């Protein structure tokens, strides 16, 4: 029965690997559309090319609604949200 067991293991592996879709890069226009829909400025959402699963929100003092909006979109698209709270210099 080693052949049957190997076949079952291989089938399970194929089934599980089919569920894991590789992350895709979203272009700047898509990210800007999400940013404006969530009340952010253009360029405040970026996706890291080296870590495609990370969606970075760079904003000073984002509201809870903005954070929830971005996190929701990221989850729907298989991304992990990273919130970077920037303190920009005055003046």
Textual characterization of the structure:
The chain has helices spanning 2-19, 28-37, 64-76; strands spanning 45-47, 54-59, 80-85. The protein has 91 residues and is an alpha+beta fold. It has a domain at 23-85. Helix 3 (64-76) links the parallel strand 2 and strand 3 (80-85).
List the helices and strands and how they pair.
Blueprint: H1 2-19, H2 28-37, E1 45-47, E2 54-59, H3 64-76, E3 80-85
Summarize the structure.
With 91 residues, the chain is an alpha+beta fold.
Strand content: 15-25%
Major sheet: size, sense and barrel closure?
3 strands, mixed
H-E string: HHEEHE
Decide which structural class fits the backbone. Answer: alpha+beta
Please give the count of helices.
3
Low-confidence stretches: none
Q: Rough shape? A: elongated
Provide mean pLDDT, rounded.
Answer: 84
Strand neighbour order, sheet with most strands: 1-2-3
Share of residues in helices: 40-55%
């Amino acid at each position: 029965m080693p052949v049957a067991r190997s076949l079952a293991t291989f089938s399970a592996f194929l089934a599980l690997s089919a569920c894991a879709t590789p992350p895709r890069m979203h272009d700047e226009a898509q990210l800007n559309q999400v940013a404006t829909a969530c009340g952010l400025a253009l360029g405040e959402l970026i996706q890291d090319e080296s870590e495609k699963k990370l969606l970075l929100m760079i904003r000073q003092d984002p509201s809870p609604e903005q954070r929830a909006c971005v996190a929701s979109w990221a989850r729907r698209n298989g991304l992990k949200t990273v919130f970077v709270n920037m303190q920009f210099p005055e003046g």
